Amino acid sequence: MNKLLLICWLLMSSTGWVLAQTHTIKGKVTDAATGQPLPFVSVQLKGTSTGTQTDAAGNFSLNVPAGQNAGLVFSYLGYQSVTQNADGNASLNIQLQKDNKNLDEVVVVGYGQVKKRDLTGAVVSVKGEELKKVPVTNVMESVQGKLPGVDITRSSGAAGARVNVTVRGNRSITANNGPLYIVDGVQYSSIEDINPNDIQSMEVLKDASSTAIYGSRGANGVIIVTTKRGSTGKPKVNVNTYVGVSQVAGYPKVNSGPQYVALKREANRTTGRWNSEADDPKIFNAFELNAIENDLWTRYSDLLIQDGLQQDYQVGVSAGSEKTKVYLSLDYFDEKGLFKLDRLRRYSARLNVDQVVNKVLKVGMQSQITYYDQSVRRDPLNQANKIIPLGVPFDENGNFIPFPNSGPHINPLADEQPDAYQNQPRITRTFATGYVELTPLEGLSLRSYAGITLENMRTGIYASQNTIDRATSSGSRSQYNTGTIRTINWENVLNYRRAFGDHDIGVTAVASLLSDQRDSSSIQGEGQLLPKQLYYALQNNARGIAIRSSYQASKLISFTGRINYSYKGKYLLSLTGRSDGSSKLAPGNKWAFFPSVAGAWRISDEPFMRSQQLFSDLKLRASYGIAGNDAIRPYSTVTYLSRIPFSYDDTNAALAYGISDQVGNKSLKWELSATTNVGVDVGLFGSRIYASIDYYDTRTRDLLLQRTLPASGGVSNVVQNIGKTRNRGIEVGINTTNITTKDFSWTSGIVFSRNKEEIVSLADENTNDVANKWFIGSPVNVYYDYDMVGIWQSNEADEAAKFGYKPGDIKVADTNGDGAFTTADRVVLGAQVPKWSGGFNNDIRYRNFDLNIYIYARIGQWISSEYDAKYDPQGLENSAQVNYWTPENPSNEYPQPNASRSRSSTPFISSLGFRDGSFVKIRNISLGYNFGEPVLKTLHLSGLRIYVTGKNLVTFSKVKNYDPERGGNLSNPMTKLYVAGLNVEF
């Protein structure tokens, strides 16, 4: 008992001693501008873990040690942090100033820059750090699903595969719908050349107000890339490298040997030719019978698909003084595809120099050279998926068997054999821009810059007789293609800005010239003397020598004016007008004027908003403008001649000429798109939540449409200004700060895009073009066929007979209800474009660790699945593993095999492959670690980060064992990538 009392006395004494050594500090935190209390403000004792938060009335209370210089740090999202010495103060009144850093960020727009707070158009900006999170071949892949209104898909999984990009849907039907890329102020078509580590920022201009200053070139959206520049002070060296293994992201398997045998037996059982295994000699040859008996069969796709390799090594140096700034980078990228002979090596170098000559003169240059050394594989999977799987590709001595089982199909491994096949493109692209800038008066600048892109390419192709492409020919083929492209862009820009009182006005004037020239030539021959000569020494080919060459050129001249006006920083107005003249269009129609107007109201800056705490930023935007499109081939206005073979009899040849398939149109004019855009930018709870929401409506008329003509006219098509389309939709981009503490933070980005694309009219208001599958009220690219609803079953024999079919046949919908299946029953099944797409990005940091998780979705798109349509009811070729109908297996998915009925004669077989291709995928998971100061000091580094990344890891879709992002093709399957990387800064 005495011991217990002693312990209690000691505890009470120590508690009193501790209380005597601390004192309580109370206070209130308010908004410096409005005086309103700020809840949930973090109050932290500097250098310790002791802290608290303000309550709903902005009040706080915190116990701090007595006698210590107690510095309190007050921090609140959207406000500037304040450190206050609390020693000796029992009560504090703290006022926090709003932090407008986010709104004061500079955004690059056409021929200038504005603060984010002053934007009137629909513009999305992405910083360079965001672009480096996903290891990619093409930088546009890194922003897939992160840019509202921008649809990005990879065309295939081949090494160096191109990326498809559209902004706010397809406006044109046959003209180009791709966006305009501007790199350092100059048009540049090959965005895949740009290394993500060289990019400072990327801006996407979407509405007509933002793109109108680029006139015809900006009709399909504008993507502006600004590369890194030199910096003053100590030189900085960055080394970035990664190495990764790529694997096939799911690939469906065709029938195994036993499955193929079962299919062919069933097909012949249907016709009465096969009843048991004793009848196998009737339907299989001797080689196949031997393979069946010894269970010899091959799944060729397993032999062709292998793991790929991707690696990148980049060094960037940034240096300079107050007057001279230099940025230099070198990069080597190497990607080995999933097939042998599929490889891309890219070498690039960049040099950016800026020099201040004096107070009024500045000059500079940006330059890049890129060299591609590529080996392209003719995709072998089509052959691998149809060849009969019985037998083996090599004999017992390891010798290659060109035609397994003496069958009609060549071995899919044929192109991989020594001296069999080569396809080697070589491309050198040089991009250089020089500028001169004068600032003779305050607020006035005149800049003239010229950019030139020179591209030289050549492709050598050699295919021996025993290759996939030449298997049915009498010899090898050699081909040598060359081409050059020269693009010159000359821009002259005047910018003037002046502020007086509450008014701020900016004026921009532009005069520009764009010249494009390109030529190509090709020579080929058959029967090369020696395989080692490949595509060289073409004069040694025995026959079939053919020569072709071509040339085309176009010019675009433009004059532009823009006025930006701001009153008190909260009422914003932008007026733009651009006049373009294009050499591609007909005389009298070459020139067009493209106007636009945009306005914005910064509601959050109004006096009546000062007393509220919900909105930290609120801006309403609206714009309207017209943009043009001339994205057709040059010379579409003229009809040209070409030489054709002709002879009077079997021995006497003569010169003969014919007009081109496409007849010229002397009335061609601009395709015009008028866009209305209404948007709102909202910051909530001290910008803890920031959202941009846009609604747009784009109406395009006078489409540059390549129209099919009746064959009786002697020509096949013509480009005309006919038809209308419409794209309208909503875009949402939300950034949130979920948690932020000293050791832990979590931020998220949510993107949602919904676009309704439709053809409004074609040759007339109400007539569809069924031959080209263009339908009024539907998107441009749709799937049009019979609607398969199942297979006729045995209990439906009488009903099937009414239509002329029997159990086991494909059953389709009688959509017009006329009691018969005719072409009139075909309907639009779905569209290639999604109903909506979106992304969910998460960045999590815990001390020195950082984690990025990114999820991407594309919902409502349809695909034409080559695998699901790969069904041969005769069993002459291999097929997909499908559940086909038999009397014992009444499947409702695939029709009954039938040896007497070919694919082409099987009713409605084209309807088998259409599928809902919606998907959700884990696009990227990356985990990194940033080494702290002790390690950096030891290694004499400024920064050191190691990371591992998984790209395209998992896809959730109704289409199994296949990534539907690229559509339904089985060639060059999509890949997933596992990467380990290193970022070093000196």
TrEMBL record:
Residues 1-20 form the signal peptide. The keyword Ion transport does not apply. GO terms for cellular component: cell outer membrane. It is a multi-pass membrane protein. It is found in: Cell outer membrane. The lineage of its organism: Bacteria, Pseudomonadati, Bacteroidota, Chitinophagia, Chitinophagales. It comes from Chitinophaga japonensis (Flexibacter japonensis). SUPFAM superfamilies: Carboxypeptidase regulatory domain-like (SSF49464), Porins (SSF56935). Residues 408-953 form the TonB-dependent receptor-like beta-barrel domain. This is TonB-linked SusC/RagA family outer membrane protein. InterPro entries: Beta-barrel_TonB, Beta-barrel_TonB_sf, CarboxyPept-like_regulatory, Plug_dom, Plug_dom_sf, TonB-dep_OMP_SusC/RagA, TonB-dep_OMP_SusC/RagA_CS, TonB-dep_rcpt-like.
